[in-house]
């Protein structure tokens, strides 16, 4: 975590930091930007010159992360296919903020538990030794 805080982060790096998405996932996310009607898995694979299965795995991770939405399109003669588009920046930012707030609360609780467990007794200077608690 310290390394992440000390390096220069860009906007797209949030996908890695918050959602654990890899470079391919980020490339797929960027390929979906500015395409109002959305793209199919085949469209994404063609744009990125990768295998369909590779594009599908990245799209699935993006959908699971909540930064891309899937919409079903129906053929007139029957059958269907899926189209993918990114969520609006406001929607994605709101979800990332909620995840960050939840993480912050969880880490705060863990820090308190650490202090309670290893706080030890204060010496005459007010320093606490790191002795295991009860």
UniProtKB/TrEMBL annotation:
What are the residue boundaries of the Transcription regulator TrmB N-terminal domain, all occurrences included? 15-88
Pfam families given in the database record:
TrmB (PF01978)
Q: What is this protein called?
A: Transcriptional regulator
Source lineage: Archaea, Methanobacteriati, Methanobacteriota, Stenosarchaea group, Halobacteria
């Amino acid at each position: 975590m310290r390394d992440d805080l000390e390096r220069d982060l860009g906007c797209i790096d949030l996908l890695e930091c918050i959602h654990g998405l890899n470079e391919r996932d980020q490339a797929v996310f960027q390929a979906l930007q500015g395409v109002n009607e959305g793209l199919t898995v085949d469209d994404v694979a063609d744009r990125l010159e990768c295998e369909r299965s590779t594009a599908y795995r990245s799209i699935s991770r993006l959908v699971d992360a909540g930064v891309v939405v899937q919409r079903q399109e129906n053929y007139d003669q029957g059958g269907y296919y899926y189209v993918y588009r990114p969520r609006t920046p406001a929607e994605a930012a709101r979800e990332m903020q909620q995840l960050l707030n939840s993480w912050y609360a969880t880490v705060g609780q863990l820090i308190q538990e650490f202090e309670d467990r290893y706080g030890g007794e204060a010496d005459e200077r007010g320093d606490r030794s790191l002795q295991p608690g009860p």
